[in-house]
Write a structure and sequence with these properties.
Blueprint (H helix, E strand, L loop, with lengths): L1 H35 L12 E4 L18 E17 L2 E8 L8 E4 L3 E8 L10 E2 L19 E7 L4 E6 L5 H6 L3 E7 L9 E10 L1 E3 L36 H6 L7 E5 L1 H5 L5 E4 L12 E4 L3 E10 L4 E6 L3 E5 L9 E4 L1 E4 L3 E8 L4 E7 L10 E7 L24
Parallel strand pairs: 1-2, 2-5, 3-12, 4-9, 10-15, 14-22
Antiparallel strand pairs: 2-3, 5-7, 6-8, 8-9, 10-13, 11-12, 15-20, 16-19, 16-21, 17-18, 17-20, 21-22
The structure holds copper (II) ion.
The site of copper (II) ion has 7 residues, from loops.
Length: about 400
């Protein structure tokens, strides 16, 4: 008995010594690799199929996936800063994925491996990363995708759950990176795909929190970051107020003119107070009004992939003049969808998928039905061409113009 215990103990000690030697050599190798900035070797089983993802910018959606086997889906995302119009005549320096707000729409299939290549060209030196809500693992991938200017990191994530998921930057302070525009959507299709529709749209709601910069500044990349500003400095102005009248006089006076475009900058304080200047679809006030309206035809079925980046507000997504035939609530693509729904809630960091048929022509209005937000930009149109259907919608009088109501063109 004693001998057996002794053997057991010595075997244990021997094994422990071997293991500790192995661990210390591994640690040594890792240290050396870190010193040299080398990439660690990882052993993973990847699908034999490989494809470069077709990505699109809002409101476009990549084509449905037709393959029946999992693949490695290669996606390249670059973090950068870009000054663009947030409203006509008003500039804002956005933090972006691929110079767009929202970032590109990524389409994959459950069981695929997302191969993300993340680069950074933000001249400020600020780190950025990607937290994919579609990814299982710490930070949704953020800790292994963090890069500063000039770097590239590659990581592989198996997509275990179908659904429509938000991705966003999660570099500190995470709220500033989200509030400045770093988000987008990734669709993970179920094995059998989604029902066929005639048109698909990418619509993403988010808020912007701003204050006015004292003097109009030229549109220069990389200027004005919250992190760089003097922490003791007071805001240069009160929050830029929203439109306040039918003729939009306030914006008209402030925007454009001989002094050039107004430049707004991010206000962390307004974000903390949850007091947005803008609540917009697809990154810009008025993006889908007038010429920018989404377009479809009578008789078609449409699907909207709707995401909410927040960072603070829950969206009450509604299309005026339509009832959603199907709502994949909270973008659950496995359960049977809700039917005949008027308005659906979408939390910050969440998404939904809605489908509906188009029975009559006209302009159908996408809104956040927390309706004051329309004045802050949460409004856009789906313009539907085609023959009237008097069995569904008719009057013996002319339509009444709705000047200045914002939701009826
Ligand atoms: Cu970032």
């Amino acid at each position: 008995m004693k001998i057996r215990m002794l053997i057991k103990r010595s075997t244990f000690l021997f094994t422990a010594v071997i293991i500790s030697f192995f661990i210390s050599s591994l640690a040594l190798a890792e240290e050396k690799a870190e010193e040299k900035g080398e990439v660690k070797k990882v052993h993973i089983k990847l699908p034999a199929l490989r494809e470069k993802a077709i990505t699109t910018f809002a409101p476009e959606v990549p084509p449905p996936i037709t393959r029946k086997q999992p693949a490695v889906v290669e996606v390249h995302l670059n973090s950068s800063v870009k000054t663009m119009e947030i409203k006509t005549g008003i500039n804002y320096t956005f933090w972006t994925f691929d110079e767009h707000v929202p970032g590109p729409f990524i389409r994959a299939r459950v069981g695929d491996t997302l191969e993300i290549h993340h680069t950074n060209s933000d001249a400020s030196g600020m780190p950025h990363n990607v937290d994919f809500h579609a990814v299982t693992g710490p930070g949704g991938g953020a800790p292994v995708t963090t890069v500063v200017k000039g770097e590239e990191r590659v990581a592989w994530f198996k997509l275990l759950h179908p659904g429509l998921y938000v991705y966003h930057c999660a570099a500190p302070p995470v709220m500033d990176h989200i509030a400045n525009g770093m988000y987008g959507l990734i669709l993970v299709e179920p094995e059998k795909g989604l029902p066929k529709v005639d048109r698909e749209f990418y619509v993403f709601q988010s808020e912007f929190y701003t204050k006015k910069i004292a003097q109009a500044a030229p549109a220069v990349e990389g200027h004005q970051h919250h992190m760089e500003s003097d922490p003791n400095a007071l805001p240069t102005n009160a929050a830029f107020p929203p439109a306040k009248s039918e003729d939009d006089a306030f914006w008209g006076e402030e925007a454009g003119g001989s002094a050039g475009p107004t430049q707004l900058e991010f206000s962390h304080e307004e974000g903390l107070a949850e007091h947005p200047t803008f609540v917009v679809f697809n990154g810009q006030y008025g993006k889908h009004l007038g010429e920018g309206s989404l377009k479809a035809k009578v008789g078609e079925r449409v699907r909207i992939f709707f995401g909410n980046g927040g960072p603070n507000l829950i969206a009450s997504f509604h299309v005026i003049g339509e009832i959603f035939d199907n709502v994949y609530r909270e973008a659950d693509l496995i359960s049977p969808p809700g039917r005949s729904i008027q308005t659906t809630l979408v939390p910050p960091g969440g998404a939904t998928v809605v489908e509906f048929g188009l029975e009559v022509p006209g302009d159908f209005t996408l809104v956040d039905h927390a309706i004051f937000r329309v004045e802050k930009g949460a409004v856009g149109f789906l313009h539907v061409d085609g023959e009237p259907n008097h069995n569904i919608y008719v009057s013996d009088q002319d339509t009444t113009p709705c000047k200045g109501c914002l939701v009826h063109p």
